[in-house]
Design goal:
Blueprint: E1 2-6, H1 12-17, H2 25-35, E2 42-45, H3 54-74, E3 82-86, H4 93-96, H5 109-117, E4 121-128, E5 131-134, H6 143-154, H7 161-169, E6 175-179, H8 185-194, E7 197-202, H9 206-222, E8 231-240, E9 242-243, E10 246-247, H10 249-265, E11 277-278, H11 281-289, H12 294-301, H13 327-360
Parallel strand pairs: 2-6, 2-7, 3-5, 3-6, 7-8, 8-11
Antiparallel strand pairs: 1-4, 4-5, 9-10
Helix pairs in contact: 3-13, 7-8, 12-13
């Protein structure tokens, strides 16, 4: 792992400072049109309520996508890294990759400075093979205040700060994954203005899931002026039981309820991902406690994970009671994430093809 400053980036603030509430709307529209084609590899994960597992889903999706790039490289095919960015101030994504508290972990200070004060943009390269990430944490709580001050002078263009930043680096990455919560509207607006594809994790009771989806749909409508392309690309269900390797009636009925709502809203049911993450909160918590994404944790539980430096097998993980983790349970969860990732990316590639065809029309 290495902390690297990405060079050659132009001032984000200079772009924002050219706008105000009195600016010609066509000028803002022109900026948005320039940004959008460069942001079609940006995937945002959020939902209208907290506790839905968005960080776990995003971190594991990033890992699966990075593994796919590594496999391409191993086969001699062109490959690019994946970038993971968490906008939330809790910075829990650091736990999923075991980097919290390491020397380069500045709790998001450098990221906030890059986003709101044009300082150099730093990423940690090689968190895993073909996976980079941006450090986040308590300093991210300063983002809303800084953006609010800019908004007071330069209007809604201030919400494009992150989009402008990512548009300058998107060519370096196969995918950029943004993890942002419903807790702060300013953070949501930055994320929604930057991403093209939305991934919404669904967890819990019918009413809570449907309420969260409704909130997200409302937020998407509100950001249309700054991002005409953002749309819910995939709804991913996690934490639901399986019997005989099939979903139970709880998930089947919930998917149908949401499907009817999508029909009413004129949204294709293709956003309902068939694959889902089975109930495995204990295994997920153990993986996070060991600082491993699900796929890596499964290999460790099976005794197949090797230390890169020594070449020796990594000690098999144990639970809080000292018992070895059930490898089959860990493998099942990891397999679920792989299946979900494949379907999500398939849907996103389809959306990107539609957007490119619209460009050419």
């Amino acid at each position: 792992m290495e902390l690297v400053a990405l060079d050659g980036l132009s001032s984000r603030l200079n772009v924002i400072r050219s706008f105000s509430d009195m600016s010609d709307p066509d000028e803002l529209n022109s900026l948005v049109r320039q940004l959008r084609p460069r942001l079609r590899n940006v995937i945002g994960t959020t939902i209208g309520k907290g506790g839905e597992g968005k960080t776990t889903v995003t971190a594991n999706l990033a890992y699966v996508l990075a593994q796919a790039e590594k496999e391409r490289a191993d086969q001699g095919l062109p490959a690019k890294p994946v970038l993971y960015i968490e906008l939330d101030s809790n910075g829990n994504g650091r736990l999923n990759f075991g980097v919290r508290g390491l020397p380069f972990d500045d709790n998001g200070l450098s990221f906030v400075d890059a986003l709101t004060d044009d300082k150099e943009f730093q990423v940690v390269e090689g968190v895993r093979p073909y996976l980079d990430m941006v450090m986040s944490g308590s300093h991210n709580a300063d983002i809303p205040t800084a953006v609010t001050k800019l908004h007071d002078k330069h209007g809604v263009a201030s919400y494009l700060l992150l989009a402008i930043l990512l548009a300058q680096i998107s060519h370096r990455y196969r995918w950029i994954l943004l993890d942002f919560s419903p807790g702060d509207k300013m953070i949501q607006r930055l994320g929604l203005a930057a991403c093209t594809h939305l991934l919404a994790p669904m967890k819990g009771s019918d009413n809570a899931v449907i309420e969260g989806l409704g909130t997200l749909a409302s937020l998407v409508r509100q950001i249309r002026r700054l991002n005409s392309e953002v749309s819910i690309a995939s709804l991913v269900f996690l934490g639901y039981q399986r019997r005989n390797d099939e979903p139970t009636s709880q998930l089947i009925n919930l998917r149908e309820k949401i499907g009817l709502l999508l029909d009413q809203a004129g949204i294709t049911r293709e956003v309902l991902v068939d694959a889902y993450i089975r109930d495995g909160e204990t295994t997920a918590n153990l993986a996070r406690n060991h600082g491993m994404p699900a796929g890596e944790f499964a290999r460790a539980a099976a005794g197949l994970l090797v230390d890169d430096e020594t070449g020796e097998p990594v000690e098999r993980p144990r639970d809080e009671n000292g018992r070895l983790v059930d490898p089959q349970r860990a493998v099942d969860i990891a397999t679920d994430y792989t299946h979900v990732a494949k379907q999500v990316i398939q849907r996103i590639r389809h959306r990107n093809q539609e957007l490119q065809e619209a460009d050419a029309a």
